[in-house]
Amino acid sequence: MKRLLAWHLLFFITFLLAAPARLLAQATTSLGGRVTDASGAVIPSASVKLTSVATGATRLNTTSASGEYQFSQLAPGRYTLDVTAPGFGTAEKTNMDLLAYQQIGRAHV
């Protein structure tokens, strides 16, 4: 009986120690895409800026040789995406709602 009680107590203590880690875990999301021109040709080295509407925090990135960009570990919320490249105007996508644990595969601009 004492041995069973000891196992239950050990399980309970282990649970209590592990619970705060789960409670403190933060949900994240990500956003990635490809920047192309009107003909569908990729635009490498374009500047991509992602701005949180709620906080005004920005993240900057540059498209790869294949025109792709990626933002990871984002807090869920509403975002604005701005893309600029030499010889092109600025493209903007507004009011993009990124949800927890959602991975948006492509946001083409």
Could you explain how this protein is built, in words?
The protein is of the alpha+beta class and 109 residues long. The protein has one domain: Immunoglobulins (Immunoglobulin-like, Sandwich). It contains one helix and seven strands, in the order H-E-E-E-E-E-E-E. The chain has one helix spanning 2-24, and strands at 29-34, 47-52, 58-62, 68-74, 77-84, 91-98, 103-104. The strands form two sheets. The chain has a four-stranded antiparallel sheet, with no helix packed on it. The termini are far apart. The mean pLDDT is 82.
Number of domains: 1
Mean pLDDT across residues: 82
The low-confidence runs, each spanning 5 or more residues with pLDDT under 50, are none
Shape: elongated
CATH architecture: Sandwich
Helix content: 10-25%
Within CATH, the superfamily carries the name: Immunoglobulins
Reading off the top of the CATH hierarchy, the class is best stated as Mainly Beta
For the CA atoms, what is the radius of gyration?
A: 22 Å
Distance between the termini: 67 Å
Order of H and E elements: HEEEEEEE
Task: Give the strand line-up of the largest sheet.
Answer: 3-2-5-6
> Could you give the count of β-strands?
7
Largest sheet: 4 strands, antiparallel
In DSSP terms, counting alpha (H) and pi (I) runs of 4 or more, how many helices? Answer: 1
**Per DSSP, what share of the residues sits in E-state strands of 2 or more residues?**
35-45%
CATH topology: Immunoglobulin-like
Structural category is: alpha+beta
